[in-house]
């Protein structure tokens, strides 16, 4: 039986126009398996293989032994001899498999910039502007090919907020990418490597939303922010070019940045600055490259009809009512016009 995540991947790839043969080849499953889930078969769950029973009593000792030896690697044969003295009666193969899971993969020294084809990838992350009761966060999405960016300020990072921001980003870009890259957002993934290395358990409602919208969620490697470097670099650019100038300007007037003001300002900044500049990585203007990329994006989906963990239909979630004195907008527009 395939996991719910594997079934989602099969169905999304079919939705993206790939043939049953292509999906089976890329995922390493039979064509009959693809056909079964394309017809609506329910997924099952594969239990993650536990540590071998004979090795289980020594698991903590092994983890500490490997940690203390890092960055040097201890050979499995050398550890086997030590384990024999501790009473281990298992084999070398089990030990090697366990050690492979404990040791981090080798990383190349140089980081090579990874480029994607139009419509292939979007990178998403949160940037926390302010914590506490008056929280302010920024949802940030960057298309891999064009580097076109979308930013939305919110007062929380809940699942319903994340999904709503995705839908707004798709509208802003004019379509849906085939894959979206995340880090370990708890609203996206609830079990990293839950079914084995690289086989993650996604948050059920978010998984259903991804299936509905037609994109494949992907996770970057732990502690490797450079895996999604496009959005990470944009976050730094957002802080330096937008947030710091705006917050200091407001503070001089005795005002505090809030959700409404931030979103009024960021839309203009995206239009006139961020997506209008020549991007240092591509040498092109993101807004102009977005015109090239848009035909490669998938069609905008209908509103997601799914349910959140609370049981509330997504379509029934009330939109926040944001009220703000009109004088604020007048002041912002006046300031922009004079700049």
UniProtKB/TrEMBL annotation:
Which Gene3D superfamilies does this one have? Homeodomain-like (1.10.10.60), Ribonuclease H-like superfamily/Ribonuclease H (3.30.420.10)
**Which keywords does UniProt give here?**
DNA recombination, DNA-binding, Transposition
Q: Which residues form the Integrase catalytic domain?
A: 114-294
Enumerate the CDD domains for this protein: HTH_Hin_like
Ranges where the HTH IS21-type domain occurs: 5-66
Domain of life, source organism: Bacteria
Keyword 4Fe-4S on entry: no
Q: Which GO terms describe its biological process?
A: DNA integration; DNA recombination; transposition
What GO MF terms are annotated? DNA binding
> What protein family does this chain belong to?
Belongs to the transposase IS21/IS408/IS1162 family.
Name of the protein in its database record: IS21 family transposase
Q: What is the lineage of its organism?
A: Bacteria, Pseudomonadati, Pseudomonadota, Alphaproteobacteria, Rhodospirillales
